[in-house]
Amino acid sequence: MRSFLFVGDSMTIGCPGDFTWRYRMWQHLEAHGGPYRIVGPRTALYDPRTAAATSHAYAADDFPPAARRHLAGWGEGWLHMAPAIRETVATTGADTLLVSLGLIDLGFYTNAAQTAANLDLFLTEARAANPRVSVAIHPVIPNVRAERDAPFAAECARFNELLAKTAADRDEPRSPVLLASAHATYDIHGDTYDGTHPGPTGEHKLAAAFADAMHQAWGVGAAYSSHHEFA
User: Fold this and answer.
1) How far is CA 1 from CA 20, 21, 94, 96, 143, in A?
2) Taking every pair of C-alpha atoms in the chain, what is the biggest distance, in angstroms?
3) On the CB side of 38, how many CA atoms lie within 13 Å of its CA?
4) What values do phi and psi take at 58, rounded to 5?
5) Report field, pTM of the whole predicted structure over 0.90
6) Where are the beta strands (DSSP E) in the chain?
7) Residue 161: which CATH number?
8) What own/partner pairs with CB < 8 Å and gap ≥ 24 does 214-222 have?
């Protein structure tokens, strides 16, 4: 039985009233994932009113508490998750990491090369806890700042290149690393509610990117886009 851990920033933790792409993935796993569990030390959404992860006001009432578990935080990136991932994997028993990080790093903390170094550390720390951990990583998500800020867009593109190289270099049979990208169809004007954070269609596309990548590379579940979730 696979144990999935969602790792991410504001696009993954979500705010009050969001479904989150974690919810869309949970729906898909329920329908097509086989035996599984979702693990993680956190369950809450980020609430702008308290500036903390204090809300449980998910848009979907059928999202069970056990499936809401994650390791995601508003304003957190590879810089923050690399030091936390070893203990989290060790204590939760996670063996499959679904990771969407990088935008916040490049926007506030580190350049592309420094962010790639934290990505590499993250993989090392995850494997220190579980040498057979599987990791699926989404590149930096298209966003409105990159559309308006050419130097920032260049850093995003550079990091995504380094991410692809790191994934190829660190991939190994016992601990696979793969990319899961929704870039081809992701439209920041239609798939987000503010140019950055995913709305319902964006949530589906992010979940689909991970589901399809895992299905194609690892034989996990079924292809997302061939089922009813996009209806």
Assistant:
1) 24, 21, 11, 10, 35
2) 45
3) 24
4) -70, 150
5) yes
6) 2-8, 36-39, 45-47, 52-55, 71-72, 96-100, 134-138, 177-179
7) 3.40.50.1110
8) 214/96, 214/136, 214/178, 214/180, 217/176, 217/178, 218/134, 218/176, 218/178, 220/2, 220/33, 220/34, 220/96, 221/28, 221/29, 221/32, 221/33, 221/34, 222/32
Two tokens, residue 176: 């696979």
Separation CA 108–CA 127 (nearest Å): 27
Q: Which structure tokens are listed for 15?
A: 């705010």
State the total domains in the chain: 1
Nearest to 40 by CA among 74, 102, 87, 88: 88
pLDDT in 10s for each residue of the chain, 231 residues: 999 999 999 999 999 999 999 999 999 999 986 899 999 999 999 999 999 999 999 999 999 999 999 999 999 999 999 999 999 999 999 999 999 999 999 999 999 999 999 999 999 999 999 999 999 999 999 999 999 999 999 999 999 999 999 999 999 999 999 999 988 889 999 999 999 999 999 999 999 999 999 999 999 989 996 444 444
Range of the domain at 119: 2-230
Q: Which amino acid appears at position 63 of this protein? A: F
